[in-house]
Amino acid sequence: MSDPGAKIPIVDLRAQYANLREEIGRAIDAVADSQQFILGPAVCQFETEMAGFLGANHAVGVASGSDALLLALMALGVGPGDAVITTPFTFFSTVSSITRLGATPLFVDIDDDGYLLSAAKLKEFLSRRARIENGATIDEKTGGRIKALLPVHLFGELCDMTSLVETAREYGLEIVEDVAQACGARQNLGGQEIFAGAIGELGCFSFFPSKNLGGFGDGGLVSARTEELAARLRMLRMHGESTKYHHQVTGLNSRLDSLQAAVLSVKLKYLNSWCDRRIACARNYQKLFSASGLVGKQVLAIPTAPTNTSHVFNNYCIRAERRDELKQFLAAAGIQSEIYYPLPLHLQQCFAELGYQHGDFPQAELAATQVLALPLYPELTAPQQETVVGAVARFYRI
Ligand SMILES: Cc1ncc(COP(=O)(O)O)c(C=O)c1O
Fold this sequence. Notes:
Blueprint: H1 13-34, H2 41-54, E1 58-62, H3 65-75, E2 82-86, H4 92-99, E3 104-107, H5 119-129, E4 130-133, E5 136-139, E6 145-150, H6 161-171, E7 174-178, E8 186-189, E9 192-195, E10 202-206, E11 220-224, H7 227-236, E12 241-243, E13 246-247, H8 258-268, H9 271-292, E14 299-301, E15 316-320, H10 323-332, H11 362-370, E16 371-374, H12 382-397
The chain binds pyridoxal-5'-phosphate.
Pyridoxal-5'-phosphate binds at residues 64-66, 90-91, 93-94, 152, 178, 180-181, 206, 208, 218, 220.
C-alpha cells in the first residue's frame, strides 16, 4: 500500500479523493439516510452500472477480489478431484481460491518477455498432459479433471485472450478471468471491443483501494455470462440461501457493502479517464527511460505502452539489475517502489505439498528476482516521473 511518508508514493489515493470529496460525501450520506446497508439499492445500482460498463450480461457484488475468485470457482462446481490451470506469477488468492476448494492448481509459466500466462506454453502443457475422455479433460499426471483456466491480467495487462479462448474451447475448459488488476482494460476481439472480465465465463474483480477502481476498503465483484451462474453466485454470497433461512448449498457471507457500492458508483464514472491517464504516464516513463540510455542495460526491460487500452497499468513494473539495492536507494530518495511478487506461488510454503521445485517455472522465478513497481497513478505529474527516472539513473551511475 501507499507510504504516505514517501515524497513520491507508489500510489497516492489522497490526490484522487481531493477531487471527489464532495461527490463521494453525498453518496455516502444517501446510504446513511436510507439505512440500507446490506444488498440495498446502492449495490443493485452499482451492479447494473458495472455490467453496463463491462458489456457483461450480469454482475454480482461480493466482499473482496479473493472472495470473487473463490465464489466464481464454487459457482462452476470446482472441488476435490478437479484441477484449474493458472499462472505461478500472481497474487496469492488467485491460487488459494483453488486450493481452498480442495482442487489442484496446475501451473503454466509466464511468457519469456512479460508477466502473463503464456498462451504457447499452455498449448504445449495441454498437448503433453491432457486427455479428453467422455467430454472431460483429464490431467494424465494427477488424474484430476481440468475444469477451468484462470488467466490473470497482471499489472493491468490483458492476456492473449484470442489464443487462450481458442485453447480453452478445444479442451472444454471454462475461463475465469482474474481481473483484479485490470478493471477498465479492453481489447478488440473479433472486430468488437471487449472488456476484461466479459471475455470468459466469469470475471473476478477487486476493489481494493489501490486498484484502478478502488473502494474505501475491501470489495469485489463477479461478472457472469449466464443468468444461471449469476443466480448461483447470488446464492453463494448469501450463505447459499435459496429463500430466507433455507440453504441449498454451503455458501459464504460475502456481500459487497452498500457504502462501498455507493463510493464505487461515483468512481466508476471516472475510470476510463483514469485508465487513459495511467497509460499516458506509462508512455511518459517509456520516453524518459529510453532517453536515459539505461534500457537493455541495467534497466533490463520496461513495459511497452500499447497504443490501445489493452494495458491499463495498475502497476508500472520494470526489470532491474541489483533490484533490491535499487529499491533501497529509491526509498532513501523518498520514492516508494514495491516488489510484485518476490516469491512465485509454486514455491510458497503453504503449497509445498503440490510438489513443485525451484526451476519448474523459470520465467516466473526470474521475474521474481528482477521486477520492481515504480510509482504510477492518474495524478502522478511529469516532474515527479522525471524525479523517479532521474533517481534510477543516479543509482546505476554511482
Ligand atoms: C491478481 C489479484 N487477484 C486477486 C486479488 C485479491 O483481491 P482482494 O485483495 O480484493 O481480495 C488481488 C488483490 O491484490 C490481485 O492483485
